[in-house]
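[Q] Does anyone have a clean structure-token version of this?
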Amino acid sequence: MARHTKARRLLKAYNASDTEEPEARVQILSDLLGTCGPGAWMEPPFCCDYGDNIHLDAGVFVNFNCTMLDGDQILIGEDTLLGPSIHIYATSQLIQAEERIYIEDSLPKYRTSAQPVTIGKRVWIGGDAIILPGVEIGDGTTVGAGSIVTQSLPARVFAAGNPCRTVREL
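[A] Here you go.
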């Protein structure tokens, strides 16, 4: 809960920060994220669970309205660009209700699962794409807007769709 509470405080500050104070924004990101490489940038608003499981290499750019559920590591390689409204989920609900929901002290409790997400160097992910837990995206790959990436993608391909599939090599 302490990690979650810290993240909420920092997210509130970041999302309310003034564009005329870039140094303050960089400091908040450095305090929030596990790694924030030189030149890495996120446009607010941004949402996450904990922040410290998110690692941005140098030159990463994340556009508006990004959500990262970081119950496990989210690693994003250098010079990668994320379009607006990207969702990256390293956390998921369990499919079976009996596994997902249990009662403790007469209250319902919920279990989740988590798997890391790794996005390589110089990747471009188009707006409104969703990246699911356990996915790896290879260096230099482009993911089309609106895609739902359910499985790993190799390096240097263009992939798109729901579910996302390789369209051609780059």
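[Q] Thanks! Anything notable?
[A] The first strand starts at residue 35 and ends at 36.
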